Automatic annotation (TrEMBL):
Regions annotated as coiled coil: none
Localization: Cell envelope
Lineage: Bacteria, Bacillati, Actinomycetota, Actinomycetes, Micrococcales
Gene3D superfamilies assigned to the protein according to its UniProt record, in alphabetical order: 2.60.40.1220
One term of GO molecular function: copper ion binding
Protein name as catalogued: Copper resistance protein CopC
Signal peptide boundaries: 1-36
Amino acid sequence: MTTTPVRHRRSAAPRAILVGLVTAVALLLGASTASAHDTVIGTAPGDGETLTTAPTQVTVETSAVPQSIGSRMVITASDGTVLFDGEPTISDRVASVELPAVANDSYQVAWRLVSSDGHPIDGTFGFVVDDPAAVTPTEDPTSDAATPTADETTVAATTDAAPSEDSTTATAADTSDDGSSTSWIPVALIVVVIVGLVLLVLFRRRSALQDNS
């Protein structure tokens, strides 16, 4: 009667070991299944990164090669303008999108990929473009040089309308020369008339003297 409990204890030990082994295998299988999902290694640009040069593409790199179907990437500017909305290009473990020329602004990227085991993965990240050499679209660097100001227009009109001092002096000199060249004509006429009258008087006196003699 004293040996029966010992037998029960010995028979229960293998069962406990078997249950432990099954539990451990189940946990390992669950862990391996969970670790099979692809993970994101990095993005370019990085999340929250400020770039001094506008990027030419946006990329998402995963731990395994994602499937080419079911992928999507949406890139928007701060005002809601959509720069891209469609399937990215899958090359090895990198999903990429070529960007058009982008201005200084903040941008948001939303992506969705299908991992190699068929499970979808997604995420978002943002970046800022702050290029000191970039020209803001509202600025027109040629407008100030091409459009004269009101003061410049007034000065130009006054300059064109008012004759210069040199031209005024030249005109006055020409007028003075013309006047001096013709002012002797009346004097000559008067002298001719006086000489004629004197000769006429002398001639008449001479004729009268001859008649008297």
